[in-house]
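Objective 1b. Sequence-to-structure analysis of Rieske domain-containing protein.
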Amino acid sequence: MPPSALEAVAESQGRTQDNGRKRVIVVGLGMVGVAFIEKLLDRDAVAREYSILVLGEENHVAYNRVGLTEFFAHRNVKDLYLNPESWYTDMDSTRFAYRIGIKVSGIDREHKSVVCADGKSFAYDILVLATGSDAVLPPDVATQGGKGVFVYRTISDFEQMIDWAERLDEGGIITKKRAIVVGGGLLGLEAAKAVKDMERFDDVTIVHRSKWLLSQQLDEVGGSFLVEKVRETGVTVRLSTEIKKIQWDDDKRLTSVTYQDGTTEDCQMLCYAIGIRSRDAIGAAAGLTCHKRGGIIINDQMKSSDDSIYAVGECANWREQTFGLIGPGVEMTDVLTWNMTQAKLHAPRSFTEPDLGTRLKLMGVDVASFGDFFADRNGPKKLPGRHGKKAKSAPTKDDVRALTYQDPFGGIYKKLIFSADGKYLLGGILFGNVSEYTKFNALVKAGRPLDKSPSEFLVGARGDDDAQVCSCHNVSKGALVVKIRDGTCKSIGELKSCTKAGTACGGCESTVKGIFNAEMKAMGAEVSNALCIHFSMSRADLFNVIMVRKFTTFEDVMKNVSTNPMASGCEICKPTIGSILASVYNRHVMDTQVHGLQDTNDRYLGNIQRNGTFSVIPRISAGEVTPEKLIVLGEVAKEYNLYCKITGGQRIDMFGAQKQDLPAIWKKLNDGGFESGHAYGKSLRTVKSCVGTTWCRYGIGDSVGMAVRLEERYKSIRSPHKIKGAVSGYVRDCAEFHNKDFGLVAVQAGFNVFVGGNGGMKPAHAQLLQENVLPDRVIALLDRYLMFYIRTADRLQRTARWLEALPGGIEYLRDVIVHDKLGICAELEKQMQELVGSFFDEWNVAIKDAKKKSAFRQFVNTDKRIGTIETVSERGQPRPADWPAELHMKTFVARHGQMKCGSPHPRYDENGSAYISCPLHKRNYILSNGEKAGSCKDDDAQSITTFEAKEEDGQVWLKLPPGVFAPYNATAEALGSDPTSGSNPNRIVKGAFIEGYPNTTVLEGVKAASYMVEMVKKYPGQVSIYATGAMTNVALAVILDDEFARRAKELVIMGGYVDDNMYQATGTTNEADINSDINLMIDPEAAKIALTAPFPKITIAGNVANQGIASQDFQAEIYQVKNSYSKLIHDYYPTIFPFWDETAMALLIDPTLATNTSIVYMDVDTAYSSPSYGNVHVYQKALMPPNVRTVHYVNTIDAKRFKNMIKNAVQYPKTCADLKKL
């Protein structure tokens, strides 16, 4: 095929392409090679960091080598292609190109290029070797060079075999033709099947030196079953046999073979399938480290001994292993492509011991092996769970037990290997029926204890799959099991939706759930009600234990109930136990024994907001409030500059309260008749109401009065999750009772009571619990309902999800709460009465308790305050200032005793690893040393930066990473480092240094940035800052001194070129044209800092300099007055260049020189992966993004006056004496 543009570029010896992408050369277009290409193209689709060229030695694109046995049926190679040819030809040629039928003969590591047999070479930045393996021939056979001997590896091999077999009929001399396949492994059986399908031989024989076929995947019993099945197909099988001699005729054509026992058989075709050897020759010739038994040695990241060369698949040797299966090769490509594209944003991956299990159909027979399938013969490679942890020596065969099942009539054999105690499945072999392969393999990979005895996996437990589970929809147990096992349904909800079981009366729901949990466990999926790693029981069980045994402290619970009594708990069990203790005893959440158990909001009795301040929401029961109370709210909000908003629950929320102000705010609210609204807790929030009969002409009941009574009763009770209620005085539902945890609607006979509604992320319509409830019976009914929910729900489970999971659903709840089926209604009512009877206002207690109040001080050792909250005004109210799009860090030293930490103390998980929780984002971050330091335990997309710290001489020192701003520009720009964005030298071109990239000094030993800061401090409002090219030192000066930009007179830039968005901003096509082709690639991050700094004025002179060209005529005009300056310009200044710096300096000296200036908003694209990285984008005000500022962009100048300024300056230069006169 003709070379593409990408190939033409790759054929050159440059290191990077014109599009800036790294060049990846892949040698080998087999199944592993194409897997690598597909994954890299997919994972690089956004960043587009790489361009790929693949070189394939065969004359075909990648095909399914495992499916070679099907080739004879259609004789069409294209039917085996993994991707159609159009997949290759339609690809974006700047990202991918391919060449087939080209052999790579060598690697030039010094010049980073591959050399092909046709003499062409291709340059690479990254080289990936996927050259696969060669089939092995015995040395004596390979040297004889006779006709009729083949290997079975490629399409070419198969085509040669077919051609030879067809030509055997020529002459008609041979009456009985025999083909022998040497090797009874996977490849040998595939070859035997292919030869048999040719239908050219009267006898096909498999010769195998082991006692049974497939000896690397099956044990002797399974192999014997396979031998029998293969013989049934008409294939002869010779076991424990080897060929000792091959006979040829005078034309070197194969005639017969002699076996080791002396027997000779006629044979017209011999096919060897006895193994493979890695194709590592080009790697070895290039000096890459290779294993003595074959294969390019790689590390866990697929890297060879050359940092730019990787190997994947059968040509690679990982930990002294080469893998002849496709699966491990694909796993290698997955690791490599992930690290090439995603590791910069995430932790890198490493290759681990691959899954060598196989599931194949050989000679018409289904065969599978999984896990450690020879553990009973060789001893287990490892033991899971506590077995592995306690082992003092390597495990042996005595540590495992095997169960087997043989059905000689059905041709079925199963062997499952378990740990000696039968708690873990380690591996197994399946023959004839492999339908359970997926389930068994998942159990092995999960490595979890089994939930049933080993025998049940072979013979099954007693039970009838035909038994009816759901009589409403006539659904059997077997129908449910099928949907679970085949992966159709992965949750109880999906199972109910798919089969309809449990969706009618709900009576079978508990049975459905039990079947689902049992099957999921059997497949290796964990289904557990355990609260966390410290408790084996559910939250509901733990609640009952605490209540019955009357535990009153966290320590009591851990000591008596926890699986690890010495543990300190975790972020799951601590808040849960704190909530349970509050639900049972209603203790103040800031009491010493329970304060440390609370979530962030409960710790400070307020909701923390995105800037670290808190919201204050006093209770306004049923939304009813007097004018006097409204005035109190207004006065408090005004005094503390709080943002006010009416909530959906008919309350007023005041945002922006600083922690140290909370007690004073609560005191004023208490004095005005308010108490805590508990908006911060998992408790009752509000009971919303319409005005009902109080005002509404349609009202049937007193909705406001009922809502007030309910909110006053249930305020402050702690529950598994927040609770919301509503009361509507009429069926029009103005209070929206249908989406509340409990909702009432007034009817003629009283109230209809609904429960289990939710309006959050997963809305749920409330269900009718009881209708026509008398007004004086409502509270008793809700007492039972709420207390039953508090006692039985899981942690953080809303009533909607609780009701869905409740066995029997609403009918069961109705039986318990209305009909008292369990006989606990009186107990529930009594418990609720005790709980609500112990009410106290948490705000009021915190104000009066000095110890609790002290927790709200800004600093623990002083009453002094420091203002740290930045706000902006929006629609007449304060709100938090937006976080900057990019954060820049200053170098600092935190002095011991003066540093305030806003984060909680570190926690420790079950492994003793430290982590810390962010109170703003509800995330946990790893603090332990290592590559995962700073990564998020809850969300892979998030992370924090961690620093090594030490205390020395009373000071706390942090070790900052390379590239972070230092107090002086000490990052050695000349060596290729970019001081504003890190230490990657590829972020900036070397030419930038030649162009005057700033590492200059104005005085010996004084850095430019420091000098600018010093001068601006000395002469505030008088110093103009001028920048040309990169603005690194301007950015450094801005970072060094927060007031630098404000103190300067202005910033004038030569080189701030913009894109064609100028047309959008100015509406002038000419201006867009002249400013459409240049950018700020030299140091975009510095440009971003400079262009967003608070300089009083920023002026940019870009292509306007083209109006002042140093033409020959103009130079001659200058040279009419001869002096050293005019001679210099006349002799050396190029006539094709404009007066760039001179233009900008002239505008600095005389701003009136500009005749046309656009005032626009500018931003710099600093996203390194963006195709517009470094571009300066221009916006009009209506379309500008946040955090940008106005810039004066000069479009035209008075060119005549400008040239006169240059001519006068050169012909009659000012002396120092002249300047002194000025």
